[in-house]
Amino acid sequence: MKGAVLYGPRDVRFVEREDPRIIEPTDAILRISATCVCGSDLWPYRGIDAPRQPIPMGHEYCGVVEEIGSEVRNVRPGQFVVGSFFASDNTCPICRAGYQSRCVDARIMGAEGAQAPFLRVPLADGTLVPTPELPPDDLLPSLLATSDVLGTGWFAADAAAVAPGKTVAVVGDGAVGLLGVLSAKQMGAERIILMSRHEDRQKLGREFGATDIVTERGDEGVARIKDMTDGLGAHSVIEAVGTQQSMMQAIRSTRPGGHVGYVGVSHGVSLPGEELFFAEVHLMGGPAPVRRYLPELIGMVLDGKINPGKVFDQTVPLEQVAEGYRAMDERRAIKTLLTV
Asked: Can you list the domains of the chain with their CATH numbers?
């Protein structure tokens, strides 16, 4: 089969790759229905944490089970399934506590390369969530979103202790930040402040539930949040970028006793101990345990309660994957859907 392979900075190619096969008896092989480019894919694409050799790309996926290993019991061929970007057994003590992304046998799906027609999923019983029946094509974007960006945005809001009556600030207007807005809305937040400088993202953010827009960044952005909250700061802040500036902007925008949910993949972030000590805010984040939320989020999509698929504002065939990367890198697209 052909799939996406990153050869170096800004060098993604659609080339021949080995067909996936059952390796362990707990594996499943999926025929991909839809996949996409993730904002975190842009870090290696831009040369940060770049691979030293060509690597397959992609970790967001949904599709139909083609084949299962001899020990798979919870899914069967012909079922439509959604999985997380971490494979997990969903039975170990860490998984049972709700942190499947840190499963004792966690496998990162990026190593399998989901930007391709077929995908091997390890630990299929714990990783994959089937839908009751094959979904219509118009729900594929939203179901795909649950695989990562919605699940990550939901975790960020959960980690930030979003609740009815609270004021939430969102640092980052990419797909995860925007779906953090949607998540905060669903959790009953009274006020949702999206920090964004881009009109198209602001518009979608408002559609998802943002009540206010702040265009300033850094200390100026913090000052605006304080002005809007009687000098106190937000109860809950979602950090969805992963830079030093975004993390400090999030912490400084949070009121004492408030919560920061950080899900931006950290690059070059260091926290000043004394400032953190006197800030007295809760910090919770990391790779989202998407598997914890998948049944609920899939159910909300199927019931028509949410439409996270609107975050995909570009759709291209899988063979044009390089254009999908370029469009996101150049901020011509929020998130690119790849049709198979």
From this structure: 2-148+289-339 (3.90.180.10), 151-285 (3.40.50.720)
